[in-house]
Amino acid sequence: MKIGDVGRLPIFREIPLVAGAAGREREMRWVHIIDIPDPLQWVRGHELLLSTGFAWFREETWLSGLVERLHDAEVAGLVLAVGRYFPAVPEPVRAAADRLGFPVFAAPFRIPFIEIIKAVQEQLLREQYESLLRMEEIHRTLTSAALYARSLDELCASVAQLLERSTAILDPEGRILAIADPAEAEQAPSDPGKPTGLRKPTRANVKAGTLPSFCTGVVHERGIEESEVVHHNGQPVIVSPIQVGRERKGYLVVLAGSGPITGLDLRAAEQGATVAALHLMREEAAVHAERRVRSSFVDALLTPRMAGSAGLAEQARLHGFDEGAQHVVGIVSEERLLGTASRVRALTSTQEFTQREHLGGVVYDWLRKHDKPPLLTYFLNLVVFVDVVHGPRMPGQGDSWQDLYLRLASGGARPVLAVGQPHPGLEGVSRSYEEAHAALLTQPLLQGVLRYEDARFLHLLARIPKTELRRWWEDLLQAILEGPHPGTHLEVIRALVEAGFDGQAAARSLFIHPNTLRYRARAIEKLLGRDLSDPETRLLLAAAQQIEAWLGTHEAVSPSEPVNRQQ
Question: Which residue, of 5, 183, 198, 290, is most buried by count of CB atoms within 10 Å of its CB?
Answer without folding.
Answer: 198
